[in-house]
C-alpha cells in the first residue's frame, strides 16, 4: 500500500485526545518515456514539470524492491558531466508580467520505470530530484529537458559513514521522501521514511502513535557526482526537511518520533531535538534563517522554532490537518495547505492571525510559490488537479488536470515552469506564460 499521511491523520485523531559512499549510476538520456509533448518550446531549453505525491491507494499498490544481502558496495563510475551551479536569472524573455497574470499550460509528461515519486524538488540550478520511497529505492535526477541524468540508489553501508548500527545490519536501504538543497544547489539532503535491512524493524507507518520506533537517516547527495557522501542520524520516519537560507542549519520533521531534528551543517550532526506533537510535516524558514515554522498535522497547529535557542511558540490558526507550508518572499505571510479540509490558509506571521482562506480542492498536499509571490501552485491529491491561486485576491484562477494522485510540486523560476510529481509513477511539466 502506498503511504498516506492524510488518512492516517484521520485515524490518529480518533485515538488521540485533543553510505559506503554510494555513487549514482549516471545515465545517458535513454530509456525515458515521453508520454506527451505537444509543441514544447522554450528559449534554448525544453522544460518539464515534476511533482511527488504521498497517499495510500490499493489500486496503485507496488511492493517494495527486495534488499540484497549484506555485501560491500562499490561505487559505480559517473560519466555525467558536472552541472553548472550558476543560478540563471531567467531563461525565457521578460514578459513584464506578474506570475498571477500568466496562464499555465501542460508542456510534457514523463514516465520511467524508476519513478514512483513522493516529491519533486528543483535544485535552483536546473536539476530536479524525484524521491521514489521504498517502492523504487532511489532518487531519480532529471535535467530541464526531462532527460534522466542519474539514478541514485539508496543503499549504503552505515559503518563507512562512522555510524555503528549495533546488532543491526550496517548495509541498509532507505526510502527517499523529500529533498532540500543548499542555496548554491551543490548538495541535496534527502530524508528516508524508514530503513530496510537485517535487524531493522521498518514497521512504523503514517498511523504511528508514541515514540518507540526505529530511527532513520538523512542522506547528503553531491549534485555534481550524484554520490551519497554523508549520512546523518535523525528521528523516526523523517518526512519534510529544509535548509536555512544561510546554509547553516538543516531542519527535519520526524513524523513518528513527534519531534524536529535541528542539524548543524558545518558538522553534519544533530545539535538539538524539539518536541512538537503528533505528526509534524511541512517546514518553512524565515528569510533571515532565525525561525523554522513546522506544520503539526495531528495537532492542528504550527510550531515556530527559534533556531538560536530552540524555544517555541504556537500558531493556533493553522486549521485542521496542516500539511505543507510556504512563506511569501518577504517572510510576512505564511501559506498552509489543510489536507482534509481542502483549503489553503493565509496567516500573518507577526501576529499569527488568519487573514483569508480559499478552497483549493480535495486533499491539497504540497504547494510552491512564484518568485514574485503573486501565485501559489497547489496539487490536490484526490482531484488529480493542479490549482493556481492569485495571492492578492486569495482566489483560484486556474485548475488543470494532473496525473493520478499528484503529491509533490516544485517551481523553476528561470523557466517559469511547474513540475508535478504523480504518486502513480509520472512527472508532468507545465509552462506558466
Q: Could you characterize the architecture of this molecule?
A:
With 433 residues, the protein is mainly beta. It has one domain: YVTN repeat-like/Quinoprotein amine dehydrogenase (Methylamine Dehydrogenase, Chain H). It has 2 helices and 33 strands. The strands form 8 sheets. It has a 5-stranded antiparallel sheet with strand order 1-14-13-12-11, with no helix packed on it. The protein has a 5-stranded antiparallel sheet with strand order 2-8-7-6-5. The protein has a 5-stranded antiparallel sheet with strand order 3-4-33-32-31, with no helix packed on it. The chain is globular.
Which fold name is given in CATH as the topology?
Answer: Methylamine Dehydrogenase, Chain H
* Regions with little confidence, pLDDT below 50 for 5+ residues: 11-88
Q: How many domains would you count in the coordinates?
A: 1
What is the overall silhouette?
globular
Radius of gyration: 20 Å
Spatial strand arrangement across the major sheet? 1-14-13-12-11
- How helix-rich are the residues, as a percent range? under 10%
For the secondary structure, the number of strands is 33
Distance between the termini: 38 Å
CATH architecture classification name: 7 Propeller
- How would you characterize the largest beta sheet? 5 strands, antiparallel
Question: What structural class is derived from the secondary structure elements?
Answer: mainly beta
* CATH C-level class: Mainly Beta
Provide mean pLDDT, rounded. Answer: 85
Strand content: 35-45%
Q: Count of helices?
A: 2
Amino acid at each position: 500500500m502506498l503511504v498516506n499521511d492524510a488518512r492516517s491523520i484521520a485515524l490518529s485523531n480518533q485515538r488521540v485526545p485533543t553510505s559506503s559512499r554510494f555513487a549514482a549510476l549516471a545515465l545517458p538520456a535513454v530509456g525515458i518515456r515521453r508520454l506527451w509533448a505537444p509543441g514544447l518550446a522554450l528559449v534554448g531549453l525544453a522544460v518539464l514539470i515534476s511533482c511527488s505525491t504521498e497517499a495510500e491507494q490499493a489500486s496503485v499498490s507496488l511492493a517494495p524492491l527486495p534488499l540484497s544481502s549484506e555485501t560491500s558496495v562499490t561505487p559505480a563510475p559517473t560519466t555525467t558531466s558536472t552541472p553548472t551551479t550558476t543560478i540563471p536569472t531567467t531563461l525565457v524573455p521578460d514578459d513584464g508580467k506578474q506570475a498571477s497574470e500568466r496562464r499555465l499550460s501542460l508542456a510534457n509528461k514523463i514516465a520511467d520505470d524508476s519513478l514512483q515519486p513522493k516529491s519533486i524538488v528543483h535544485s535552483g540550478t536546473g536539476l530536479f530530484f524525484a524521491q521514489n520511497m521504498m517502492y523504487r529505492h532511489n532518487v531519480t535526477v532529471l535535467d530541464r529537458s526531462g532527460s534522466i541524468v542519474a539514478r541514485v540508489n539508496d543503499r549504503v553501508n552505515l559503518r563507512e559513514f562512522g555510524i555503528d548500527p549495533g546488532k543491526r545490519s550496517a548495509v541498509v536501504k532507505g526510502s527517499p521522501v523529500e529533498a532540500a538543497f543548499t542555496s548554491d544547489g551543490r548538495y541535496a539532503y534527502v530524508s528516508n521514511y524508514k530503513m530496510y535491512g537485517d535487524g531493522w524493524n521498518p514497521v512504523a507507518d503514517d498511523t504511528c502513535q508514541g515514540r518507540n520506533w526505529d530511527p532513520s537517516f538523512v542522506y547528503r547527495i553531491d549534485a555534481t557526482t550524484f554520490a551519497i557522501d554523508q549520512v546523518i542520524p535523525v528521528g523516526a520516519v523523517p518526512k519534510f526537511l529544509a535548509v536555512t537560507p544561510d546554509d547553516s542549519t538543516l531542519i527535519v520533521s520526524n513524523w513518528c518520533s513527534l519531534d524536529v531534528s535541528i542539524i548543524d551543517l558545518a558538522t553534519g550532526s544533530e545539535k538539538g531535538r524539539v518536541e512538537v506533537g503528533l505528526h509534524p510535516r511541512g517546514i518553512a524558514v524565515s528569510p533571515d534563517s532565525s525561525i523554522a515554522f513546522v506544520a503539526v498535522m495531528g495537532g492542528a497547529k504550527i510550531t515556530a522554532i527559534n533556531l538560536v535557542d530552540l524555544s517555541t511558540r504556537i500558531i493556533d490558526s493553522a486549521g485542521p490537518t496542516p500539511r505543507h507550508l510556504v512563506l511569501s518572499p518577504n517572510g510576512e505571510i505564511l501559506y498552509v495547505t489543510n489536507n482534509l479540509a481542502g483549503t489553503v490558509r493565509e496567516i500573518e506571521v507577526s501576529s499569527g492571525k488568519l487573514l483569508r482562506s480559499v478552497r483549493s480542492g480535495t486533499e491539497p498536499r504540497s504547494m510552491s510559490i512564484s518568485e514574485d509571490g503573486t501565485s501559489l501552485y497547489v496539487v490536490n491529491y484526490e482531484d488529480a488537479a493542479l490549482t493556481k491561486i492569485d495571492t492578492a485576491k486569495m482566489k483560484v484562477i486556474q485548475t488543470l488536470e494532473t496525473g493520478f494522485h499528484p503529491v509533490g510540486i516544485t517551481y523553476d523560476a528561470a523557466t517559469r515552469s511547474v513540475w508535478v510529481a504523480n504518486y502513480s509513477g509520472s512527472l508532468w511539466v507545465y509552462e506558466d506564460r
